[in-house]
Design goal:
By secondary structure, the protein is α+β, with helices and mostly antiparallel strands. It has helices spanning about 125-130, 195-210, 220-230, 265-275, 280-295, 350-365, 370-385, 405-425, 430-445, 485-494, and strands spanning about 15-20, 25-30, 30-35, 45, 55-60, 70-75, 80-85, 90-95, 105-125, 135-140, 140-145, 150-155, 160, 170-175, 180-185, 260-265, 310, 320, 335, 450, 455. A hairpin with a 6-residue loop joins β6 (about 70-75) and β7. The two termini are about 40 Å apart.
């Protein structure tokens, strides 16, 4: 349904992400869970107010308006704190998805000073708001049927009441200094000693403690690593591009797509970052996921060894559809689920992937024999097909072109393949790879460069600039102080 004119949309930086490597929720600085899919990342949402005023939410807040609010992570964890300050009290809401044991989203309210009254509103809207809200009281808890045979349980330390229309659970309670009141939603309404709090905090701190990064801005780097870890899928090893759908490229625009899938490109960049920080387990898990996609010709798309994206189960059949009953974030319609880009030919994904695997190979004990066989097959394929037009990195829907960034990343696939073969003496048609690599390099210089602009361009023989070319020095195609690169950078900046 369309959001009413009085709806106040929070800026996206008012949200923090929590997760358990199976699903992800967004909690706002107002104390509201406005996005949560259950039971996994790409399942329909239970709370979706991020995308529509009546999309469902779970609010916990003081009855009296606070004088100040702080929104921050517990250091070294993905436990999110919302701290409400007033003249009479300080109250914290801790939000997290429990690691280990029954899967639950936990919310713990603790009064640090004084006494105050808190308000709770739980307004689930299953199946992207399309399903009837079916809340049933059972053994001191509440059961919600979310469809597809899935159930969600709500438990609380205080009594939750069902509003007359049956669509919301509500409560008000007074909390005093040193007291904690807990709420959970998930596989079980169990409110054990601390709702899995200590176990969850210990998990995150042990994980980030394995980081080998010791450079500048360590706190910011480790916070970014914790965010990336939220997008790993423990069961499959897949690395997701995002935990949400349909957040707009520009407010009011139509480029609002579903990114809750394993994009080969995004996964490769994530893999590269995690490897640089010393997290090899995630690299090994994703490599296993990738090899499963490459095993078996029946699963391969018609346009190459890999599709641009897959769901967590490895399927590339991701029908795209719109949710016309939702307004979209700040009125940015349409809201989409699924993604038609799974049918596109995107040449650049092979360069990003081979580059990430090259890093894993160089920094570890080396790829397994079967893995190298697949890498060599990918590089052979690139050597044969790098001259073909594609939809490119930006997944354009206006037809295929010869994108300069696609050619750049095809060159990367060939160049890194040669390095991997030479480094460990692996069998490969290296002579052909070198010949095609040099031909790709020459074509990029000849047709990807525009003398009038003094810059590399979006397409071969084109006249448009493109931020994707900012990758050129990062993938070692050109030195950072090369005159052509400095001129390109200046043009893009302008």
């Amino acid at each position: 349904m369309t959001a009413p004119p009085t709806t106040t949309w929070l800026p996206l930086d008012a949200y923090g992400a929590i997760g358990d490597m199976q699903t992800l929720a967004l909690s706002s600085r107002t104390g509201s869970i406005d996005w949560w899919c259950w039971p996994r990342f790409d399942a329909p949402s239970v709370f979706g107010r991020l995308l529509d005023a009546d999309g469902g939410h779970w609010q916990i807040e003081p009855v009296d308006e606070p004088t100040a609010v702080r929104h921050l992570y517990l250091p070294g964890t993905n436990v999110l704190l919302t701290r409400f300050h007033s003249d009479e009290s300080v109250v914290e809401v801790e939000d997290y998805l429990v690691i280990g044991g029954p899967r639950r989203l936990a919310r713990r309210v603790t009064c640090q000073r004084g006494t105050t009254t808190m308000r709770v509103v739980i307004a689930p809207r299953p199946d992207y708001g399309r399903a009837e809200v079916d809340l049933t009281a059972e053994d001191g808890a509440w059961r919600l049927d979310v469809g597809h045979g899935e159930r969600l349980w709500f438990g609380a330390d205080v009594e939750l009441g069902l509003e007359p229309d049956g669509s919301r659970l509500v409560a008000e309670f007074e909390i005093g200094e040193g007291e904690t009141v807990a709420f959970v939603a998930g596989e079980s309404p169990d409110l054990d000693d601390d709702c899995g709090y200590r176990r969850t905090v210990d998990f995150w701190r042990e994980w980030i403690g394995r980081s080998t990064y010791r450079g500048r801005w360590r706190e910011a780097v480790e916070r970014s690593a914790l965010a990336l870890k939220l997008l790993t899928h423990d069961e499959s090893g897949g690395l997701l591009a995002a935990g949400t759908t349909s957040l707009p490229e520009a407010v009011g625009g139509e480029r609002n797509y579903d990114y809750r899938y394993v994009w080969i490109r995004d996964a490769a960049f994530t893999l590269y970052a995690l490897l640089e920080l010393g997290f090899r387990d995630e690299a090994d898990a994703f490599t296993a996921w990738l090899l499963a996609r490459l095993d078996g010709d029946a699963a391969a798309p018609a346009f190459g060894p890999l599709a641009p994206l897959y769901d967590l189960d490895g399927s590339a059949e991701l029908d795209e559809r719109t949710l016309d009953h939702w307004s979209g974030y700040r009125g940015s319609a349409p809201v989409r689920v699924g993604n038609a880009a799974s049918d596109q030919f995107q040449l650049d994904i092979y360069g990003e992937l081979v580059d990430a695997l090259y890093l894993a190979d160089a920094h570890g004990d080396g790829l397994h024999l079967d893995a190298w066989t697949h890498v060599a097959a990918i590089v052979d394929w690139v050597a044969e097909h790098w001259r073909e037009p594609d939809e490119g990195m930006w997944e354009t829907r206006g037809g295929q072109e010869r994108f300069t960034s696609s050619l750049l990343l095809a060159w990367v696939a060939l160049e890194r393949g040669i390095r991997m073969a030479d480094h460990r003496g692996r069998p490969a048609d290296v002579a052909r790879w070198r010949s095609e690599r040099d031909a790709a390099h020459a074509e990029l210089l000849e047709r990807g460069w525009n003398d009038d602009l003094g810059a590399f361009t979006q397409t071969l023989d084109g006249d448009r600039l493109d931020a994707s070319l900012l990758l050129a020095p990062m993938v070692k195609f050109v030195a950072g102080d090369d005159p052509r690169w400095r001129s390109t950078l200046a043009a893009i900046e302008a």
